[in-house]
Amino acid sequence: MYEYWLENLFIPSTAHLNRPLLLIIDGHASHVSLKVLDLLKKNQIICLMLPSHSTHALQPLDVVAFSSVKQDWSS
Questions:
Q1: Which residue in 10, 55, 69 sits closest to 1, CA to CA?
Q2: DSSP codes, the chain
Q3: pTM of the predicted model, to two decimals?
Q4: 35 near 9, Cβ under 8 Å?
Q5: How far apart (Å, rounded) are the C-alpha atoms in residues 50 and 55?
Q6: Which end of the chain has less neighbouring CB within 10 Å, N or C?
Q7: What is the 3-state secondary structure (H, E, C) of 28-45?
Q8: What is the pLDDT of residue 71?
Q9: What is the per-residue pLDDT across 39-70, written as a single tens digit (0 to 9) for each?
């Protein structure tokens, strides 16, 4: 899913921006593959992977502001 998003949505929609780009993602294992690394390198995208289990410290909006939205979506 991430690979598809990167290749077919993110890269085309940011093609007009100056390179390099910084992409900040969470540390999920599905975000790392040889194809993904190749796509990042070819498109001059620097990928900063946040450590696993650090959402509470590094993404406070995700924890505080969007938690009610996530609960509503789950319902």
A1: 10
A2: -HHHHIIIIIHHHTTTS-S-EEEEE---GGG--HHHHHHHHHTTEEEEEPPTT-HHHH-HHHHHTSHHHHHHHH-
A3: 0.70
A4: no
A5: 9
A6: C
A7: CHHHCCHHHHHHHHHCCE
A8: 79
A9: 999 999 999 988 877 767 777 666 667 777 77
pLDDT of 13 > 90? The answer is yes
Q: 19 is written with which tokens?
A: 């390179």
Tell me how far CA of residue 46 lies from CA of 36, 64, 66, in angstroms.
Answer: 12, 28, 26
Residues of the chain with pLDDT > 90, as a percent, come to 49
